[in-house]
Amino acid sequence: MNAILELDKKLLLLINKNHTPWADKLMWFVSERLNKIPLQIIVFSVLYFVFRKRSPRLLISLIILMMLLSELVVLIAKNKVKRKRPFVNDKKIRIINDYKLKDASFYSAHAANAFVPVVLVASIVKNRFIKLFLYCAGLVVGYSRIYLGQHYPTDVLVGVIAGTIFGKLGALIYKLIMLCKQVVIKL
Known about the structure:
The protein is an all-alpha fold. It has helices spanning 2-17, 21-33, 37-50, 56-81, 86-89, 109-122, 128-147, 153-186.
């Protein structure tokens, strides 16, 4: 376990120490601006347009439900594990805009909540370009959390895994409901 924690710390320092002014702005924007309500409104609007013939309200409702469930599990995990943020444990961690969250580090809610819609939508769409774009966007959010010194890599990895689980669950529910609709229509 100590070897994993040591590798975690080394990887964090490797990512966190390589700062440039443009990357600082980009990572801050990705992590803190794109994660707010305006982006979600844009995403839901695009989903509504793309899925207009395939129950967009259901898809959006499932994304919201799965993100709420994901957030609940994150809060429970943070309360149980109580892992301190990297900048608390190591003064070498570089912080942008004096951004220091006060809650626990394990695990990353940003990564989990980024991957819920990524995995849910990617499980439904067939277009490989859209899937690639979604996964890249999710990974950039996770990377930004390490870059900004807010999470250890394992915090982000577990967030990605949790988001993937909730995204897959949401996709399964969506597919089951759509299948039931088809069966009812045939009757």
